[in-house]
Amino acid sequence: xxxxxxxxxxxITPEQDAALKQLNAKxxxxxxxxxxxxxxxxxxxxxxxxxxxxxxxxR
Length: 59
Hints:
The protein has 59 residues and is mainly α. It is built from two helices and no strands. The mean pLDDT is 88.
């Protein structure tokens, strides 16, 4: 994902934080990238509720 990114704040549970940090330690993929991937999964799942936005997720 090479497009410009914006900063935002999300609150996650301590368990989610620990699991993401373990995943990062094993894979060296940044935690932020996993969070972005999770957001993409949710947006794809609910794309029918985003009228006019469906073409963004048909990649």
